[in-house]
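Give me structure tokens for this 326-residue protein.
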Amino acid sequence: MKFLVALTLLALGSQCLARPTNDDDHHWERFKELHGKNYQGLEDQVRKAIFEEKLKKIAQHNLEYDLGMHSYYLGINKYSDWSSQEFTKHMNGLIVSEDHTMDLYEPSGDMELPSSLDWRSKGYVTGVKDQGDCGSCWAFSTTGALEGQHYRKSGKLVSLSEQNLVDCSTKNGCGGGVMIKAYKYIIKNGGIDTEESYPYKAEDDYCHYNKSNIGATCKGYKKINEDEESLKQALAAEGPISIGIDVWDNFIDYKGGLYNNPNCHNDRGSLNHAVLLVGYGQENGMDYWLVKNSWTESWGEKGYIKMSRNKNNQCGIATYATYPIV
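Here you go.
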């Protein structure tokens, strides 16, 4: 009987989703007002059509979530009028490169790991940032890891400049990049400027680093073995970790819960987005990683996502993990 009721609900939900309502225009206008968007003519029509399709997708998924078919739910965010192709082009900027000279993190076999961890509560993590219309996720992942290491050493949490990296880090920019090249730039340069002194513009610009505004320095970096147990040990022992992941399907619309997507890939070639790992724990009996994104607080759980842990390295979360040494 419960199965029949669930089928009926899904059928009714699909019918409702397919039927336009008188509120469509109001929702679209409210969305644009909320996120400061202004379109004219044909672009407005195209964006509205994408937005309305996104609403249907979210409603369908969340109905299934309420029926216990998913462990996470979806929601509207500032990118809900972007196509998936557009989003991939502008927001997923990780370009993983081989680097055989990296030192490898050696975990301590006798370290007792806490059952849960959140480096935010210990002062290691700055607020959620906004990479804007620029494939600079690699820069935000880099600064996040370095901000944590700088705090660990100095006791001062300093927001560091992603724009400094976008403008000055060789072969990195809004068209994509990788954290290793950013570390190398900071080491060779003798430091990185503060966010305040070198503010973010979300576009490639000329390099105007000023050594008098250094916010942190870096003398090296290490890579972590490509398994979740090593990643857990490094996170607990060292602080926030820079990682690459495979952004797939509903990740863009994630709003809350524990993101579990077995369709994700975990090979190095599939990694397309850089984020910051800041903790781990359990929710409803499921293990998760706590991840900081750079898509504003309007995305996810105020800018964060809980991603599946101990699910065969789902989405490649342990495939390309590094941290700087200060």
